[in-house]
Every structure is written in C-alpha cells, then in structure tokens.
Amino acid sequence: MNAPRPKVRIATTSLAGCFGCHMSFLDIDEHLFELVELVEFDRSPLTDIKHCGPCDIGLIEGGVCNAENVHVLREFRRNCKTLIAVGACAINGGLPAQRNHLDLEACLREVYVSRDGLGEGGVPNDPELPLLLDKVRPIHELVRIDYFIPGCPPSGEAIWKFLTDLIAGRTPRLSYPMMHFD
Amino acid sequence: MSKRFLFDGRPVVFEDGQTILQAARAAGHYIPHLCWHPDFPPHGSCKLCIVKVAGRHVSSCAMPAKEGMEVESNTPEINGERRALLQMLFVEGNHFCPSCEKSGNCQLQALAYDLEMTGERFAHFFPERPVDSSHPDVLLDFNRCIFCELCVRASRDVDGKNVFALTNRGINKHLVVNAESGRLGDTDLAADDLAANICPVGVILKKRVGFATPIGERTYDVKPIHIVAMEDGK
Ligand code: SF4
Ligand code: SF4
Ligand code: FES
Question: Does the distance separating the beta carbons of B98 and A179 come in below 8 Å?
Fold first, then answer.
C-alpha cells in the first residue's frame, strides 16, 4: 500500500526585505497546486501564524536590520531543520545594506528631520519600534544557514526547483540559467 | 617527439616556455582565471587558476609546463577552493550585483555562477570606498575592485599614461589614481584607452551606456564563462 507521505511543513518570513522574494515564490503559477499537495505552511505572511513551530524548511527573505529581525531569525533557526537564505538581501544585505557606509543617526535625521515639512515629529522613538542595528547584516552572520538561493529576486522557477529537489531528498541545485545575482 | 603533460588525465602537447594555462587553453581546456590576460605577462594575484601538480597547488597562469607532469584542475576539490577564493573576493569589497552596471558582463559574477557559488559564507567587510565621478566619460566605483592590476598594467604598458596604481598591502591594499588630487578627472585618461576597457568587474565604467543591454541578452546570460573565455581568446 502506498500510504501518503506526511506533508512537509514550511515557514517563511521577510526580515529587511521588500517582499519581492515572496512575490517571486507566488510566481510559480500552476505549480502552486502541486505545492499545496506537498507542503503545509507554518508561520508565514501567507498564513498569519505569529510564531514559528517545528518545521522542516524555513525560507528567510531579507537581511537583519533591527532587533526584531534578530529574534525572528533565531526563532526560525530554533524551529527549522533546514534554513534557507532566499535572495540578495538575506545573502549579502542587499539594498538595505547600502546604508552601512552612513552614520545611522545622520541617516535618520536625513529622513525624519532635515527634509522639508518633516521637522515636527523628529525621529520616531516609540518603545514599540524595534531598535535599528548600526549595520545591516546578511543572515548567515547570525545563524547557521543551510542553503542560499541567489537572485534579486530569485525566479519562481529557481525557488520551485530548489524546494522540489529538497522535498524529494535530492541535493538542491540550480541550473545555469537559474543562477542570478540580479 | 613533442612534449606532453596530463591535464585531468588527458594528454596535452606543449612547447617550451608555455605555462600550464597557455598550453591547456591551446588544447581546448579552460582553466578559470581573473587576473590573467592573454596580452600581458602573468600577474599571479587572484589564484583562481590554481591547479594541483604532484599534490601541490600551483598558479597555472605562471607555472611553466613540464614534460610528464600530471595536472588536476576541474575536480570537486579544486573547484571548491576556487569557490572559497571567490567568496573572499565578494566579502572583501561591496558587490551588490542588482545595482551594478557590469552585472551580466562581469567575470567575477560569471565565475561565481559557473562554480555554483550561491552564497558568500564569510563575514562581510562592508569597506568604505567612495566612488570617483570626476571624469567626464568614465566612472570609478572602487567598491568592486579585485586588485587584478589589469588597468594598472594596461595604462602603464600600453596606453603609456600610468593613470592607476595599487597602494598599501594586505587588508589596506587599494586602487589609487596617479594625480595630485587623486581624482580621475585630473588625469589624461580617455574613454577609449585600453585601461578604461579592461576591468573584468564593475570598477571602471563608461558613463551614459549603463544597462543598455537588457537582462537575458548580456554576455553571461547567454553563455557561461568557460565557453565565452575560450571563444574570445581571453
Ligand atoms: S562587479 Fe561583478 S560581482 Fe561585483 S557587483 Fe558588479 S556584477 Fe556583481
Ligand atoms: S579597477 Fe578593475 S582592472 Fe583595475 S585593479 Fe581593480 S578590478 Fe582590476
Ligand atoms: S589567473 Fe593565475 S593567479 Fe590570477
């Protein structure tokens, strides 16, 4: 008898990213129907589950730019057997890391104080707001990362190829046209 | 009888004076390289061309071929080491390919694709390297320099202008412009000088032509570097 295999549990999150990698993930079109047969989602913007439970695969979009990102990343590492950095920002900091050469305070003043019409409120200082880190960091500098899927964003096909390789128990591998850093 | 050595188990004929890399290429075998260029003497800085001969690592761009040597190049071990070298080059500079005009035409990026470097693994330096936009036709983005000295060699030995130099050592090594002000705009570099056209990465860029070729049609979108490098003879 061919008993159905239990579904693979996947969690996803966007840290210092733009959700472009999640959009690309959704861009796998009709593979979405195959995907729901193979996997179920834990914490993810797709489910609105707030905290990650034990999972087989975690997909992280974006680097780490504030204290909350650090907590979320550690929660994922604690719970996911395989953790994957998805996209340029998770892999090397990407666009948000362009601020790494600027003084953080000068950066905040430029955005919230110096610009015309923005002098009133000053730099937001609500205790609810996560504290910014002085530099944006790629996620492998904080926790162990098992795999990287490059691209800005990686194509839906690349994400699909990677996931299906993993789920089938193969070493995930991108074909040459799927390898892109841009 | 002609002299030969074994390259990944296959016989390669060579002439005295040829390096391993030259002889291998002449026989149709590609060896990855970044600082080597067919028109210049070997530089030996990037080490991407490492091969193993009798259990020892040598730079194939600089090592003369010798009768009977057994050379290992395209093996998982050596390619893994080449990948680690690439990862170090990436974290040492600021390589944000999505916003780089050279993306798709960059040899560093193309080698990373070919050797399946999906991530950098090491901690990023995020060095501070301000750009120089003082020249009317050429932009200098120091963030991406890999210190291959091709621009230095081209400017000094071919253009006869000596516009570029490397200064300091180790972690403090960097590219400088030979002008009192240190600015490219104060040199006699012209956009059609060899030095302005030889950079394998995205440091020395022509202004007003960036992103002209659409994604999908750029050099390494179409073909991997191990094919392009053999077709172009470089
Ligand atoms: S020089 Fe090459 S590797 Fe560096 S950012 Fe530009 S395209 Fe990417
Ligand atoms: S600017 Fe380009 S050609 Fe010159 S040393 Fe740097 S990487 Fe090499
Ligand atoms: S190509 Fe031989 S060391 Fe760079």
Answer: no
For residues B163-181, give the mean pLDDT.
95
- pLDDT tens-digit profile of B8-34? 999 999 999 999 999 999 999 999 999
Closest CA of chain B from A2, distance in Å: 36
Q: Tokens 């210092």 appear where?
A: A16
- Total number of domains in chain A: 1
pLDDT in tens, A75-109: 999 999 999 999 999 999 999 999 999 999 999 99
* A20: three-class secondary structure by DSSP: helix
Ligand located closest to B60 CA = 3
Question: Selecting from 1.20.1560.10, 3.10.20.740, 1.20.1250.20, 3.30.450.20, what CATH number does the domain B3-74 have?
Answer: 3.10.20.740
**Domain boundaries, given as residue ranges, for chain B:** 3-74, 97-230
Ligand 1 centroid to Cα of residue B105, in Å, is 9
**Domain extent at residue A148:** 8-101+132-178
Residue B41, helix vs strand vs coil? coil
Give the minimum alpha-carbon distance from B14 to chain A in angstroms, rounded to a whole number: 32
**Predicted complex ipTM:** 0.94
CATH node for B97-230: 3.30.70.20
CA distance to A17, A20, A108, A162, B136, per residue, from A26 (Å)? 16, 10, 33, 14, 44
CA of B199 to the centre of ligand 3 (A): 15
